[in-house]
């Protein structure tokens, strides 16, 4: 039997350090890029997003109807017992039918419910999707909706990891944050959570990941640091992080911290 | 707005040539490797596969219960209207609730129903899964079952593409195949469909894809032709193709051809 090369990184909730949280964030970049590449296999498939196209979904688009029902099914088998997972349709969820797993609860109770999925949903469909798909309709509506949900869930998990970032940063220096939290000073908190050089590096890394993962791999090519035919435009992935993923993550962090002393 | 670099390849069913079918097969290698990497994020999570662990699923494992219900949901939004998609639980499917999309029907009617999903299911859980996961239980049962289904669907789509391969090869040289089909000469058909040098190249390419896509991409590294820490063992992916994907694809091709004159 072949040896496994690397063990999956443990969830940071089991051992909360900034290093663990960063490793998880870096790993999640891969999942986001994979999901975008898989969505870009299909053209836009506009009927999936038109609530009037399939009247049987009661005013919802196929994408909404599918995501809501898929989340309900995943809730039934326990997905949202893990505090890392945040649903898009929390009102439609089934009660889990399985014995709860004992996930470590590391979030401050008043902060745990921070949820920016509405903003993620709107950003994904209105801004991102037209940038990663070509126009057209190939009829693969179910696969398209499933690929959209993979992207949304990967983005949501990444952005809500801001809760771990905020918790670990608060624990490391509670005195530094307390004054700004008590003053509800959002601007100062945002400044404390912003590291321009780190953000620049993340943007460059995700762009490179898009380049490496979305290339047409052949037996001949050796250098993966050149931009060849890409299934997803690397500069779009960089822009996704700059304009949406990192700002929304910081929104999560600020919202989390503002409730951290409640 | 950024330019899209490459348009998705049209489905071969819209323009059936061996070149188109091969392009689709090559693109699907990426999907399979991505899915395996995403599954390997989680440890084995054995309770997902134990029918006695969650008695509420009526004798099914969580993996079976999830896959069956997820397929039913996807069927409702039209997944199996596309002849490229083959369900694992055909008896549990919902009737599609959407207007049928007019997918081109290119398969010979008597051959269209070839389905080796039982063999794929058994290979995936009994052989492959222990090779790509580490032992352990992190409680992410729902995400694990969802990741398993992504792998299974990617493998099933790839293997059942053998129907396209068989149809296009038959159309290109009906006289060559007819005698063997009429004699039900499975051995001769298998020989006619086997190209050792092509298979060797495919094995090397999927190994390289596993190396490229499962590496920890950093801003520094440039050469992607060296095996560094991999999230999925490249030699396992090569073995997956050698031992299971390519033989099962040829089984599909032979079964398809055996009914091609009915």
UniProtKB/TrEMBL annotation, chains A, B:
Chief place where the protein resides: cytoplasm
GO cellular component labels: cytoplasm
Classification via SUPFAM superfamilies: Chorismate mutase II
Family matches, as PROSITE patterns: CHORISMATE_MUT_3
E.C. number: 5.4.99.5
GO biological processes: amino acid biosynthetic process; aromatic amino acid family biosynthetic process; chorismate metabolic process
Pfam families in UniProt: CM_2
Catalytic activity: chorismate = prephenate
Pathway where this protein functions: Metabolic intermediate biosynthesis; prephenate biosynthesis; prephenate from chorismate: step 1/1
Superkingdom of origin: Eukaryota
Keywords: Amino-acid biosynthesis, Aromatic amino acid biosynthesis, Cytoplasm, Isomerase
Subcellular location per the Swiss-Prot or TrEMBL entry: Cytoplasm
Residue intervals of the Chorismate mutase domain: 141-253
One GO MF term: chorismate mutase activity
NCBIfam families recorded: CM_pl-yst
Protein name: Chorismate mutase
Organism of provenance: Canna indica
Record lineage: Eukaryota, Viridiplantae, Streptophyta, Embryophyta, Tracheophyta
């Amino acid at each position: 039997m072949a040896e496994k090369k690397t063990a999956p990184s443990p969830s940071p909730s089991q051992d909360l350090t900034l290093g663990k949280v960063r490793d998880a964030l870096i790993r999640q970049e891969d999942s986001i890029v994979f999901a975008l590449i898989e969505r870009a296999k299909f053209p836009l498939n506009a009927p999936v997003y038109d609530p009037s196209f399939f009247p049987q979904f009661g005013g919802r688009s196929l994408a909404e109807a599918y995501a809501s029902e898929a989340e309900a099914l995943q809730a039934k088998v326990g997905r949202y017992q893990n505090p890392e997972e945040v649903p898009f349709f929390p009102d439609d969820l089934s009660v889990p039918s399985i014995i709860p797993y004992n996930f470590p609860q590391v979030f401050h109770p008043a902060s745990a419910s921070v949820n920016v999925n509405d903003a993620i949903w709107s950003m994904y469909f209105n801004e991102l999707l037209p940038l990663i798909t070509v126009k057209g309709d190939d009829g693969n509506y179910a696969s398209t909706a499933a690929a959209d949900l993979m992207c949304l869930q990967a983005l949501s998990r990444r952005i809500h990891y801001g809760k771990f970032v905020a918790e670990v940063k608060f624990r490391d220096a509670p005195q530094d944050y307390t004054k700004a939290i008590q003053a509800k000073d959002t601007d100062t908190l945002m400044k404390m959570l912003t590291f321009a050089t780190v953000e620049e590096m993340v943007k460059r890394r995700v762009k490179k990941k898009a380049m490496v993962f979305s290339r047409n791999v052949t037996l001949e090519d050796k250098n993966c640091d050149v931009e060849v035919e890409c299934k997803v435009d690397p500069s779009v992935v960089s822009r996704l992080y700059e304009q949406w993923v990192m700002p929304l993550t910081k929104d999560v962090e600020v919202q989390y911290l503002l409730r951290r002393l409640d």
